[in-house]
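Appendix B, record 7
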Amino acid sequence: MASAGEDSRALFGAVVRAALEAWPALQIAVENSFGGVHSLEKAEWLGGAVEEYFLRNADLELDEVEDFLGELMMNEFDTVVEDGSLPQVSQQLQTMFQHFQRGDGAALKEMASHITQRKCKVTATNDGAATDGVCPQPEPSGPDFQTIKEEDIVEDGWTIVRRKK
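Structure tokens (predicted):
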């Protein structure tokens, strides 16, 4: 049976990975193989590296977190993040770590839920700009809920959403 500290650490790691997976700059870098053929593996490694960075350095300042993330993106994905998201992600990660240090698992779970609800798929355009895709919406409940038909799921994992008639 895992101790409360191990559970809390595992939750912190999961929330860090969720935040990084929802980060459009990292999504684009992975999607376009900016890190080479192993971009996906590098992104997975990045989550563990960021978690470990926080655990080894308990009193980090926001600019230190930004610098660390910026260096990782540059070194691993040859990507300079200039969309303004670096301070936002750094602040989010730092807030998560503060909740972890206080043992506030409920706040971490709430942050994870919030991240997954607003996670969007983004794509890069030829001029380097990012375009937002369709964000998943919370599942509706009630009599208007439409079930997904098997033929609405296409090969690449996307689901075709049709207007109710």
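Remarks on this record: Residues 4-21 form the longest helix (18 residues). Strands lie at 122-124, 130-132.
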